Amino acid sequence: MTEQQLNEITPSKIRIAAMGMLAGREYLQNQLAEKLAKKFDNSSFIPEVLKRLVEDNLQSDHRFIEAFIRSRISRGQGETRIRLELKQRGANIALVSQLLAEAEVDWYELALQTATNKFGQSQPVDAKEKAKRMRFLQYRGYNFDQINYALMQ
């Protein structure tokens, strides 16, 4: 084999690289496309390879989003933050909304559990402490009603 043949970009080389990446963890299709574009100099073969990976069920935005939602819920993050992070990653917003609805999570109880894990059972001693707890829960992605529920228990 000549050096040019070794360096030639082929669909099979792109597919093998993509499968190697997917073996480590799930990726959104657009994330995988970006990684492959960097590695293979924006090859025109990339869209077709990605299409085949989806058809072969080796890459799935649905699986990625489900796993992402589960991991963030286990970290005590709220719906707003999860939705924002997935949007920033380029996930399909309609699919994100659907999967968040299917997650069957009581966001109020999760907010309460998150607050209890961070601050214990004690009530805030003053307005400054309450504001600190509210900021923490807001940063975690909970809405006003969920925060109030968590802090009033």
Proportion of strand residues: under 5%
Poorly predicted regions are none
| Shape assignment | elongated
What profile does the largest beta sheet have?
A: none
Task: Please tell me the total number of domains.
Answer: 3
Q: Helical segment tally?
A: 10
Q: Class by helix and strand content?
A: mainly alpha
Radius of gyration: 21 Å
Assembly context of the chains = single chain
DSSP E strands, number: 0
User: Helix content range of the residues, please?
Assistant: over 70%
The ordered H/E elements are HHHHHHHHHH
Terminal Cα span:
71 Å
Mean pLDDT: 94
Please give the structural blueprint:
Blueprint: H1 3-7, H2 11-24, H3 29-39, H4 46-55, H5 61-74, H6 79-88, H7 93-102, H8 107-119, H9 127-139, H10 144-152
